[in-house]
Amino acid sequence: MVTWQADFYHHRRQQAAGRVLWELLICDRNRSFQFEASCPQSEVNSNWVAVQLQLAGGGNLPDVIQVFRPQCLGLIEQAGRSLGINVEPTRRTFALKQWLQEKQYPTVVDKPPPAPLPENLWGEEWRFATLSAGKVVEVFTEQPIPILVMPEFLQPINLGLASMVSVPGVVIYGGRQSMRLARWLQEARPAALNYVAGAPDGLVLEAGLVDRWILVTFTDPEVVAAGRVYEQRKQESRGLHFLLVQPDDSGMTFSGFWLLGAED
Length: 264
Known about the structure:
By secondary structure, the chain is an alpha/beta fold. 28% of the residues lie in helices and 34% in strands. The protein has 2 domains: 3-102, Ribonuclease H-like superfamily/Ribonuclease H (Nucleotidyltransferase, domain 5, 2-Layer Sandwich), CATH 3.30.420; 115-260, no CATH class.
């Protein structure tokens, strides 16, 4: 499957006449292919983007285009539809962001304050947990889990983690809401789950391109201490962590499992 990463944005550059210049940057995952084009803001539309995609491909269009910037997602989606290309919103456009940084262009996008998780989705209990890196894939690929998300680039072996490194995570016991919560999370597209100190402390789920959700808040000193250990272990596991949703603590059934990573 051929995958491109694309960005289309104005980076405070001005033409001689004072018009805002938009730049389209396209690359593949290892940057063996790169393409760039620009146009004044008055010409910005999905048709222009579609034409540039055709020029970039030279008759060989990709199967998927990954986009991390919300401001250009709609335009690229429209262009992709006209050409039969799937467009995937994702924060994980490592090669493209590296290229933007080399050009000294910003890769950070504005994010809204975190919103509370809808009450009808929350489960019964939750806890911090750990798994050894050598067991993460083995344990869950052998289970009949309805929703299982393990991107190859996040698997411990591909991160170079030793098998005994502790991978931290959070387990939610959803009870009757377990599958409903798992389906909602899958639609939200989890990216990272962070402990955030504050008053109170809490766990914030980074999802989609810019969405942020408060999963839980707490003030208990022992839980606060566990939250700090959770973040420390994430550093030791190169950002790798997980989220597991299951009905109860029997260990017999699971609803959803996601491998998550540090934001790039």
